[in-house]
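Entry 14: structure prediction run for Acetolactate synthase. Input pasted below.
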Amino acid sequence: MAPTTGTAAGDTATKATTNGSEPAPDLISGGHLVAKALKAEGVDTIFTLCGGHIIDIYDGCVDEGIEVIDVRHEQVAAHAADGYARITGRPGCAVVTAGPGTTDAVTGVANALRAESPMLLIGGQGALTQHKMGSLQDLPHVDMMAPITKFSATVPHTARVADLVSMAFRECYHGAPGPSFLEIPRDVLDAKVPVDKARIPTEGRYRASTRNAGDPADIEKLADLLVHAKKPAILLGSQVWTTRATGPATELVHGLNIPAYMNGAGRGTLPPGDPHHFQLSRRYAFDNADVIVIVGTPFDFRMGYGKRLSPDATVVQIDLDYRTVGKNRDVDLGIVGDAGQVLAAVAEAATGRVDNGAVARKVWLEELQDVEAKAKQKRLPLQHSDASPIHPYRLVHEINEFLTEDSLYIGDGGDIVTFSGQVVQPKSPGHWMDPGPLGTLGVGIPFVLAAKHARPEKEVVALFGDGAFSLTGWDFETLVRFNLPFVGIVGNNSSMNQIRYGQAAKYGLGRERVGNTLGDVPYDEFARMLGGHGEAVRDPADIGPALLRARESGKPSLINVWIDPDVYAPGTMNQTMYK
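Run finished. Output tokens:
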């Protein structure tokens, strides 16, 4: 592609002068080339912590109308870029300085890799003229980032800056989405080159659509399997939201009368109350189904590495990444493609049949509804418990009752968020956020930052474990500074309780408190100190009113709920690492 020239590329360029009669060509700096490439990708915000290596990017962003949100820790910037991608469907971008700035962001990048979240981390570096001389904050960033990114490179020349940015974004979408990393040396970033010498890819023309519908023959096979299945089940994973496949997924399960289970960002694909929305009967369904379709979820620890599926079932796996299909467990049919395109094609292939099996499957759905009802009834007394300290089930029940169709829910923690996964049900697609399979604590405040900034019209509700909040909690001040109100709840048991349970199970009660016990921190006071709204709750009857007051405050808020430290979530007790 030819470089873009003329006024469009030269709006922010410097017009130099010469001693001759002809003016020198327009010049543009590396930082401004970064900003132009970000704008071409649709990025309207960068998350950053300042450093001398990267300030020319800020200057370019000001000229291009890209907002600069500065945080207190680079891990927060990287997590926020991840969260921005999940919320908007566009890649996120974090910009950090060299050395410790880049290493601080490693956890956020790693989390985005496992969560299949497209983001670009730009890191500073010492000048090329000081290469290997021991410049300030010099580290081998590219080598460090290579194992946890889809693309990791150094920009070798100012004229290549925008080109490499576009290349990094292209790689973000190779197979399943993920993060890329670019290192830009200080002199490359600050230098200016003639605009007509810089390759500036044109918006919409430097990468192709990745919406692949899979092999048509396999689509027909899957349609036949589902039409003739007596007891099918489908799991809608995170890629259903990543590919914005809510419509096709809903059409398929409704049209063929298939029970649907949802995990990760796929939660909310079907709203609570939908007759095809199931949650508490998944193990029963996977033990008894004759056809199981797994969409956008790997056979990792969450799926028991595939062992939680009946060995007698016909198993189909649909995924964006060829490497994921059939990994850890054999499948009867694997389809590599975009979840939305594949599910839409299967629904179309199944139409026009004299009998698509939907009516006969009514008995199967009723069987699962009975299992669901019994499981819910068994847990209901705990959800209404008046015990003090507060039972975690009561807390997450109150949160679920509080949520509206516009409430975007974020879970950041161990044991308390495991409780919430059984009870809290987002009312709309894309309204559930959790770390993903890396299990990273500390994503909560960064995700709030990204979600509320990108979707200011949404109510953001976040549940934190007290240990998780402590990791990135100082950026609560960033939310106050940028006036981004949200309803935050800390389930406070003064412990890293998920680990505590494992220690007690493995070593006995005499050693259950080694390295996992926290102080009794009044997080409500912390919130008020930083300019937000804060309340403490010890009586379960006060949870609902406190949540309403937080909503009405119009401020970033923390409701510090003191919960029973001696109660563990079933998911915590069933973790295989403790067996």
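Notes: The radius of gyration is 25 Å. Will compare against the previous run tomorrow.
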